[in-house]
Structure formats: C-alpha cells, structure tokens
Write a structure and sequence with these properties.
Elements: H1 6-14, H2 29-39, E1 51-56, H3 59-65, H4 71-79, E2 82-89, H5 96-99, H6 105-111, H7 113-137, E3 141-145, H8 150-157, E4 163-172, H9 188-191
Antiparallel strand pairs: 1-2, 2-4, 3-4
Length: 195
C-alpha cells in the first residue's frame, strides 16, 4: 500500500485548523452523506459502530442547542453552517447481529451496561475523529467543541434516554482570515515511547 500524496496529508493534518469563524456558505445534504459514508468505514471494536450524528442546520435547531453551550461557544455555533452532535447509542448492541462477525457479544453488552457504556463512548469518540477527517477530505473545515452541558443536550435532543452526547463539531467553510496562529504540539520524544 502506498502513502497518500503530501498534499492530502497537508489537507487532513498539517494545514488543517480548528475553525471558529465561518463563511456564509451552505453545506449540502449530499456532502453530509458523503462524509458519513466515508467515516463509517473506520474501525470500532467488534464493529459496534455506536456513534450517531445529529446535523443541526436550522436557526430553530441552533436555538434549541444554545442554552447548553458555554458563552464562548455560542457565536461559533450560531454562525457555523452545520453543528453536529456526535452522540453514542447505549443500545448499539442491538445491531450487532447484522454488523458484527461476533454477534454473541450482544449478550455480553446487554448483561453489563457499564461495559457497554464505556465501549460506546470510546468507539463513538473514534468515529467522531474519523468523521472530522472525512469532512476535511471532502473540503470542509471543522470546529470541534467540548464546552457544553451534556445533560442539557441529552434532555433536549435525546429524551428517549439511550442516546448520549459525546462532543459537538461545527462544519463548513472556514474564514481563514480569522484563524489564529497554530499552537505547538508535543514532539515525538515527549509523547511516545519505543520499547
């Protein structure tokens, strides 16, 4: 397998930025479907695929989300073409008979709700990361956010109780004139160990 071109690595990683200001340019339904159709192929444990994505694009939807946000995130969300609630389904195991080559795992998750919740949270986090890379791959910018009240989001959007919010991510075309200088990252020797 060959590596992807350097330009693709730039688009996905080196030149990609967390965006906080947005151009007034819509994101089509087809683009959102394309992002999901790429991201769904990322691996999860036992192919559990617990992530669920709620795309908020209307003013009414954003007003429902507004009370849950910290003040510093309100304008970013209100001006983004799309805000995605990346959530996880505590009943993900109900699809394992169709998705997994180990459908017997369904019983294990049903009998251990704490293990199911940890699995759902961890794997929905992975799927959220795949989702952001897929969005960048199709030319969108991302602005992930964790400054919000999960309980308020869950009460407003997931009253049935089996879905829980993980994080939020704004999507659209970023206003590059308002991007701040990149913060540093840890060097290999600071974050990695070779054994």
């Amino acid at each position: 397998m060959s590596t992807v071109p350097a330009s693709a690595l730039d688009q996905l990683f080196r030149e990609a930025r967390t965006i906080k200001a947005w151009l007034d340019q819509p994101v089509s339904d087809d683009t959102l479907r394309e992002i999901y159709d790429l991201a769904k192929w990322g691996p999860t444990s036992f192919n559990t695929s617990p992530a669920r994505f709620v795309f908020i694009r209307t003013r009414e939807g954003k007003e429902r989300l507004r009370p849950a946000l910290t003040p510093g995130n309100v304008e970013k969300m209100m001006t983004a073409p799309v805000t995605v609630i990346v959530a996880y389904d505590l009943l993900f195991h109900q699809t394992m008979g169709r998705l997994s080559n180990k459908p017997s795992m369904q019983t294990m998750f049903e009998s251990d709700p704490r293990f199911a919740e940890v699995t759902a949270l961890r794997n929905s986090s992975l799927q959220g990361a795949y989702f952001m890379l897929a969005a960048r791959a199709v030319g969108l910018d991302c602005g992930p956010m964790s400054g919000f009240d999960n309980a308020k989001v869950d009460e407003e959007f997931f009253p049935q109780g089996h879905l829980r919010s993980n994080f939020l991510c704004n999507l659209g075309y970023g206003d590059r004139s308002k991007v701040q200088p990149r913060n540093p990252r840890l060097d290999f020797h600071e974050a990695c160990t070779l054994l």
